Amino acid sequence: MIKTLVNAWKVADIRKKLLFTAFIILIFRIGSMIPVPFLNIVDEIDVGKGNTILTYLSLMTGSAFTYGTIFAMSITPYINSSIIMQLLAVAIPALERLQKEGEEGRKKIASITRYVTVALAILQSLAYYFFLRANNYLMTDADGVALKGFAAVFQAIVIIAVLTAGTAIIMWLGEQITIDGIGNGISIILFAGIVSRFPTLIKQLLQYLDTGRLVYTILVPVVLVIFILMICYIVFMDNAERRLPIQYAKRVVGRKMYGGQSTHMPIKVNMSGVLPIIFASSILSLPGTVQMFIASNKYEGTFWEKFFNAFQSDSWWYAGMYFILIIFFAYFYSTIQYNPIEMANNLRKNNGAIPGIRPGKPTSDYIFRVITRLVLIGVLMLSVVALFPIIWSLIADAAIPPLSEEGQGGGMSITLGGTSIIIMCGVALETVRQLESQMMMRHYKGFLD
Q: Which stretches within 181-274 are classed as H helix?
């Protein structure tokens, strides 16, 4: 990867794109530090413990959410909008027809996605405003009393409008990277937000070392080694694929013979990417988020206390439900992305066949069996990365005793979860592939050379 970046830097055209991309990322990080008006946040916003939508947003936005900045919503509304449009394209025939209309259809879908993004950003900003007001993070009058009447309405409108505008600006910045930069702009923005949390992770590890405990002196290097091994594992998982052999029949057109070549149909092992983890974590974070808006004394000692505790990320129940939901959404998404009947029909139309398998229904059944087994293998590999931080924290909390009698200073949690690592590795690999393809286009030798 480093060699590819060095070679890309030597090409003047690509170097301009790299510099432009770096400039856009700089703007994004500056905006992530500009506070929203009318907020009174001294240090950080307390997003609570366990797994909630708030902790997830803090991770995806590079801590901009916890500081109440103009980019606090980051690119998450656009990601949610894209996922919704993908699902609706399967359920709504009109959207499915737009997808098949080529470039014009994709432009229309992209335009609809932008409108849905703005709508989701407004809803998300509204929820964020109510959270800030409930936890006294809004600016008050001289007597320390919350604003009322027109002043309170104006305060709410400004906060929601600024947060929504921040999402629209980030979406525009991502599109500029796609057009004039190295491409894949939305993913680059998401990558920059996750990578910006690296200093926080390093600070956390140094704090463990500062305790002077022998167990942390041993475990911190182990965590770093595991982090490197996990990156290698994700790269292997991302590149793994099953290649179905395809044989095309010979056919004579006029005096020429066409076909007869052998090729293959690549099917990725991890065909659903990180989406099953995103769906599963979003669903499991809902009870924890609802809990934050309810006074704890209202459900203590009741069934609801056990219910909410089961959805905390420091419980084995959560790990089990997380694993089941990842499997469910992996199969669900694969059925949307891959249609064995359509794949078999396309092979038959092009006079292609899988050796040893008859065309038509036997081919579609064979492809279905292959995809089903690959999804299972892929989701098991994906679950290793997703569940490792949770299982590590559970084991560390049980094995490492606290420093004080109040229960403080024990365990060893990892703030950078498996979802973040998968996204980082996926974006990095895709960016390298795009750079390699652009360099190949500029160094391609014609048949006269």
A: 185-195, 198-210, 214-239
Tokens for 437? 């393809």
Sign of CA dihedral 153, 168, 106, 338: negative
- What average pLDDT does the segment 39-61 reach? 68
Positive/negative CA dihedral, 34, 38, 41, 42:
positive
- What is the separation of C-alpha 1 from the centre of its chain, rounded to a whole number of angstroms? 21
Confidence (pTM): 0.76
Q: Which among 127, 164, 137 is positioned nearest to 286, based on CA atoms?
A: 127
Instruction: For residue 35, list its beta bridge partners.
Output: 69
- CB 187: neighbour CB atoms within 10 A? 21
Q: Which of 286, 322, 388, 270 is nearest to 56 (CA)?
A: 286
In the prediction, which pLDDT does 164 show?
Answer: 93
For the chain, how are helix, strand and coil distributed in percent, rounded to 5? 65, 5, 25
Among 13-17, 107-111, 138-142, which is the least confidently predicted range? 138-142
Q: Is the pLDDT of residue 386 over 60?
A: yes
Count Cα atoms within 13 angstroms, Cβ side, for 166. Answer: 31
Q: What is the pLDDT of residue 265?
A: 83
Neighbours of 182 (CB within 10 A): 20
**Residue 268 forms beta bridges with which residues?**
241
Residue 243 — φ and ψ, nearest 5°? Answer: -105, 110
Model pLDDT for residues 293-317, shown as the tens digit of each residue: 665 566 666 777 777 777 776 677 8
Q: Give Cα separations from 7 to 1, 4, 20, 178, 182 (angstroms).
A: 10, 5, 17, 21, 14
| 258 backbone dihedrals φ, ψ, rounded to 5° | -115, 160
How far apart CA 68 and CA 131 sit, in angstroms, is 11
CA–CA distance from 338 to each of 81, 331, 349, 362 (Å)? 21, 10, 18, 16
pLDDT tens-place string over residues 324-347: 888 888 888 888 778 888 888 888
